[in-house]
Design brief:
The protein is α/β, with parallel strands linked by helices. It is 38% helix and 19% strand. The strands form 4 sheets. An 8-stranded parallel beta barrel has the order 1-4-5-6-9-10-11-15, surrounded by 8 helices. The relative contact order is 0.14. InterPro entries: Alkanesulphonate_mOase_FMN-dep, Luciferase-like_dom, Luciferase-like_sf, SsuD_RutA_monooxygenase.
């Protein structure tokens, strides 16, 4: 339970650039496929996840379009989609957000992604230095928020000019869909605390997360606001700790040193993200010291940009590690695992009962009350046991 006595809000992830069973190889690789994304979204919807994060970037399917597609095949699942200031006007994003919230019947969550890859930003026509991107984003969201909350905005700013902009059709949620943000730099934190509802951190060791939360809380209080907190983590959960660590080793068993070096060079040369630098510092490209805190494993970050750590262990072990983050103030988890369809089932079936989450929704009765033992799926059905046996 969180500090408020409520279970964690637990979201899953749509791997919209592709998926696989091993990092650093094309073996058992699953390319980006909208049909596969639908399978994951429908599984997450049924298995008890409250929502899914849809990533953004040049290598990913466009998050608003993909969310609109998946909303048609799901019932309760919420969609955390990215707004990237500078890739379109705030008025256009306001129309996108309002429409997606309307067609999904109020299931939209918004994720501010200012961007950390200089090369990718240049491809989008954005050439502002790191801290100035947040000055630009502040003007952007002044217009965006006024439009989506009131239908009108006017700004003649340094970066944004919006003259008598209007939005006719409002979102379902009032005053607007919730806004999430993750950023570790001083400029990012100062920008976010005046605007966002939930501050996100990547899965750093608890002591580092505690320092970040304290910093964000102080900055938020100085502006008279209260921000809640979430964490972005991968999960490798198995019935025993030993099995989980074997699965972690297997995930990078086909990852070459050359692939690691190539990925780390890209992170160093193309990213000015403070969060990425903090992720890289946990392992420094070395595979010999990947457990950076009890059960917190940095192997994924050897080649994956952004969130690079996983909680590894049995359900009880992982639940205990999650409790440490909850005690710091974390109330939301955005989770993933490889491959995402199978791991969505494992996390729901193994971990959810340990952390007080209900698991699958709307399950159809399997019997008239007798206990049933799975019999292998034969034509005779399952083995029925008398009640109480």
């Amino acid at each position: 339970m969180t500090a408020t006595g409520k279970p964690l809000d637990f979201l899953w992830f749509i791997p919209s650039s592709g998926d696989g069973s091993y990092l650093g190889t094309d073996e058992l690789n699953r390319p980006a496929d909208p049909i596969y994304f639908k399978e994951i979204a429908q599984a997450a919807d049924r298995l008890g996840y409250s929502g899914v994060l849809i990533p953004t970037g040049a290598a990913c399917e466009e998050s608003f379009v993909l969310a609109a597609n998946l909303a048609a095949y799901t019932e309760k699942l919420k969609f955390l989609v990215a707004i990237r200031p500078g890739t379109a006007s705030p008025a256009y994003y306001a129309r996108l957000a309002a429409t997606l919230d309307r067609v999904s019947h109020g299931r939209l969550l918004l994720n501010i992604v200012v961007g950390g890859s200089q090369q990718e930003l240049a491809g989008d026509g954005i050439f502002l230095p790191h801290d100035e991107r947040y000055d630009h984003a502040e003007e952007f969201f002044k217009v965006f928020n006024e439009l989506i909350q009131t239908g009108h905005s006017h700004l003649d700013g340094k970066y944004i000019q919006a003259y008598n902009a209007s939005l006719v059709l409002p979102p379902v949620q009032t005053p607007r869909p919730p806004i999430y943000f993750g950023g570790s730099s001083d400029a990012g934190i100062d920008f976010s605390v005046g605007l966002v509802d939930k501050y996100l951190t990547w899965g750093e060791p608890p002591a580092q997360v505690a320092e970040k939360i304290a910093k964000v809380r102080a900055a938020s209080a100085a502006k008279g606001r209260d921000v809640t907190f979430g964490i972005r983590l991968h999960f490798i959960v198995r019935e025993t700790d030993e099995e989980a660590w074997e699965a972690a080793d297997r995930l990078i068993s086909r990852l070459s040193d050359e692939a690691i070096d190539a990925a780390q060079q890209i992170f160093r040369n193309q990213s000015d993200s403070v969060g990425q630098a903090r992720m890289t510092a946990l392992h420094n490209g070395r595979r010999d010291k990947l457990e950076v805190s009890p059960n917190l494993w940095a192997g994924i970050g050897l080649v994956r940009s952004g969130a690079g750590t996983a909680l590894v262990g049995s359900p009880k072990t992982v639940a205990a590690r999650l409790k440490e983050y909850q005690d710091l103030g974390i109330d939301t988890v955005i989770a993933s695992g490889y491959p995402h369809l199978e791991e969505a089932y494992r996390v729901s079936e193994l971990l959810f009962p340990e952390i007080g989450l209900a698991g699958p929704r709307n399950q159809i009765r399997a019997s008239f009350g007798q206990k049933q033992v799975f019999g292998g799926g034969g034509h005779g059905g399952n083995v029925r046991l008398a009640s109480g046996s």
